[in-house]
Amino acid sequence: MNISVVIPLFNEEESLPELHDWIKRVMDENKFTYEILFIDDGSKDKSWQVIESIAAKNHCVRAIKFRRNYGKSPGLHVGFEAAQGDVVITMDADLQDSPDEIPELYKMMTTGNYDLVSGWKQKRFDNTFTKNIPSKLYNWTNRKISGIKLHDMNCGLKAYRKEVVKSIEVYGEMHRFIPVLAKNAGFYNIGEKVVQHQARKYGVSKFGWERFINGFLDLLTITFLSKFGKRPMHFFGLIGTLMFVVGLFATVYLGVDKLYHVLNHMPARLLTQRPSFFIALTSMVLGTMLFLAGFIGELILRNSPDRNNYLLERKINL
Fold first, then answer.
1. What is the DSSP letter of 203?
2. Which of 228, 262, 278 represents a domain boundary (last residue)?
């Protein structure tokens, strides 16, 4: 099978028939073998009934329904698990992603040796102040932290090699950082394509301002886990040791200074009256706690049954 199109959705009953017909027309014109995977994320409207009627007319349509709303990441995760095509393409169900981009994305994946190609909505039809400006700032931050030079990391229109989607786990709200997950899994050939963005035709956006805050926190999480997830002592132990040493030297200095004043019969404040003494003690205590956190993390990791899974995956892929 050439292509699997994975479409997570929530309350998109108006757009689904038009989206399906559009995808089918593109696939038929290019003679692709394909499947369309609709992932209904607990819709409260008639989305599932619409999907059932579509599937009854097109045997290439498959669907999965959640009992309640879990979010886009779980939807993509189960869609990736079910996908069978050599190239997996994701898009949103609101008609803002154009299926006409599919042939070029497929061509880039099959002839350009890419692991992943992400869409870039260079010209957007969203509100400038509520979406465009925050999105630019958000993507700039992502580029600086992740090192992946994509202009629109959160674009829903992406193409993947089958091996990529079978090697990553999308959870929480990590759908925004699938290129980062792919890079951490060893897939470095990540490309970008300018794609057409269309104004929303039906319904309203399901995402608000909180996605920028949550997204930044998720990026910090995934960056930390990718660097120190297999060696927590290198992070907590290093910072803990530095804090403890600084606190220890400060405490010794204050003690020697106090002793010097006493031996020379010079007036000196009590150590308990000096704020720097308590700062030094706090630094030592925090340093010890951080060191122990890293040590406990190493103990847990050493006893984890899947601690070397990434090595097994690399051996399988050889």
1. S
2. 228
Q: Can you tell me the mean pLDDT for 104-130?
A: 83
Alpha-carbon distance of 55 to 48, in angstroms, equals 10
User: Between vectors from CA 143 to CA 138 and to CA 145, what angle results, nearest 5°?
Assistant: 95
| Strand-strand pairing, 158-161 and 116-120 | antiparallel
CA 44 → CA 53, 65, 306, distances in Å? 17, 11, 38
23 forms beta bridges with none
Higher pLDDT, 120 or 268: 120
**Distance between CA atoms of residues 29 and 36, nearest Å:** 16
Q: What is the pLDDT of residue 122?
A: 80
Whether the per-residue pLDDT at 257 is higher than 50: the answer is yes
Task: Write out pLDDT tens, residues 137-158.
Answer: 777 777 877 788 888 888 899 9
User: Are the CB atoms for 15 and 43 separated by under 8 Å?
Assistant: no
Per residue in 195-240, pLDDT (tens digit) is 988 776 676 665 555 666 766 677 677 677 767 777 888 889 999 9
CATH number at residue 58: 3.90.550.10
Is 35 within 8 Å of 4 (Cβ atoms)?
yes
Q: Residue 47: give the domain boundaries.
A: 3-228
Question: Are 45 and 112 part of one and the same domain?
Answer: yes
Helix spans in the chain (H): 16-30, 47-57, 72-82, 102-111, 133-146, 162-165, 178-184, 210-228, 238-263, 275-302, 309-317
Say what the pLDDT of residue 174 is. 82
Which pTM does this prediction carry? 0.72
Q: Quick check: 40 and 66 in contact, CB under 8 A?
A: yes
CA 234, CA 101: separation in Å to the nearest integer?
Answer: 44
State CA 159 to chain mean position distance: 16
- Dihedral (Cα; 137, 223, 312, 81), 10-degree rounding: -40
Order of strands across the sheet that contains 87-90? 61-65, 34-40, 3-9, 87-90, 158-161, 116-120, 190-194
Contact 290, 229 (CB under 8 A): no
